[in-house]
Amino acid sequence: MIALSRQANDDSAAPDERLLWKHPGSFGIDTSGGESSLQGQVTMLISCGPVEVATNAIALCPRLERVVAFSTSSVFSKASSPDGSENRQIADILARETQLQALCLESGLALAIFRPTLIYGCGLDRNISLLAAWIRRMGWLPLAGKASGLRQPVHADDLAGLAVNALMADKPVNLDSPACGGSTLSYRQMAELIFDALDKPRRIVNLPPRLMAALVSMVRLLPHLRGVNRQMVRRQNIDLVFDDSALKKLLEYQPRPFRPSAGDFEIPSESEKYRLFR
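The chain above was modelled as a monomer; its predicted structure follows.
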């Protein structure tokens, strides 16, 4: 298995012989001028990073047969965002996806694009794990208004299984679909279950949305809250619910309901050994 990471370098040590870390810029390059043996080994690609890395990998691997690329459901929820930076980000993602799709079509490659909703279960997300970290630190959580917007949080393990199923399917999978979790619940209900998972009393403070947005504008400068913005507050009362029925039917996708444990907000011990840096 070959893993690409922008943190990898020529001295990156693999945890075992099953995994080889490579930097995207050096992947497939043979300094002797010939075709790299890595290029001929790769027949399947799972992309969990920037879309352009997947596009570059496809161009380097002539024996590829199937591609699974994880993108984002934000292309639906942020397309008309009042935040200019969010608009530009989504436009860039869509443009790079168009390039990926065109390359796969030209190369005759099966391409499955999965768009997860709120991911949890790995401790590295900037949504649910961020809420859990705040609750651990502060013991309470501020929410905007009733925080009634519906969510479908999805576990990272379910997404990993989905990717493997798509690659191993009897027929090549060509699909562009949301990938949702097994529960549809309000933002507030989701927060309450995070309190429960941490064995903390449910201490939720409902603030007027405008006041909450103003507070976010001030605290977002803190290192652990970078990336939080006013639009995230606004969306706490907006439904972000998607239809993944085609995915469920094609790949028998059955994601777990949202019943997290404290361990779901940390990096799993089995995965920890595969990290480049700690």
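The radius of gyration is 20 Å.
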